[in-house]
Amino acid sequence: MLITVTRTGGFAGRERTGSLDTECRPDGIELERLAERTLSAEDAAGREPLPDGFHYLVRVDGKTVELRDPYLTEEQRQLVGAVLGEGA
C-alpha cells in the first residue's frame, strides 16, 4: 500500500510531502490499519480551519481524505507522523 501525506499551512506556510510503501516495512500492517481508519473517518473539508493550523491531504491507493488540526485523532496523528518522518 502506498501512503502519501501532504501537509500545508502552519505558521511558516510551508508545504511538506512524504510517501511510504508499507509492503516491505516491519510495521506495514499497523500502518495499513491506520490508513484504512483514516480513510473511513469524516473528511475535514467542511470544518473551520484553525489560524496557522496544519492542513493534510492523505492519499492511499487513489483515495484521498482531507484532515485539519486540531481535529486529527491520535491514530491519524500517528499515521501522519510516520509518513512525514516525524515520529508518532
What does this structure look like?
The protein has 88 residues and is α+β, with helices and mostly antiparallel strands. It has helices at 28-40, 74-83, and strands at residues 2-9, 16-21, 54-60, 63-68. The protein has one domain (2-83). The chain has 2 helices and 4 strands; from the N terminus they run E-E-H-E-E-H. The chain has a 4-stranded antiparallel β-sheet, covered by helices on one side. It is globular and about 40 Å long. The relative contact order is 0.26.
Number of helices: 2
Mean pLDDT: 88
Strand content: 25-35%
Radius of gyration: 12 Å
Number of domains: 1
Number of strands: 4
Structure, briefly:
The chain is α+β, with helices and mostly antiparallel strands and 88 residues long. It is built from two helices and four strands; from the N terminus they run E-E-H-E-E-H. The protein is globular, with a radius of gyration of 12 Å.
Topology overview:
Blueprint: E1 2-9, E2 16-21, H1 28-40, E3 54-60, E4 63-68, H2 74-83
Antiparallel strand pairs: 1-2, 1-3, 3-4
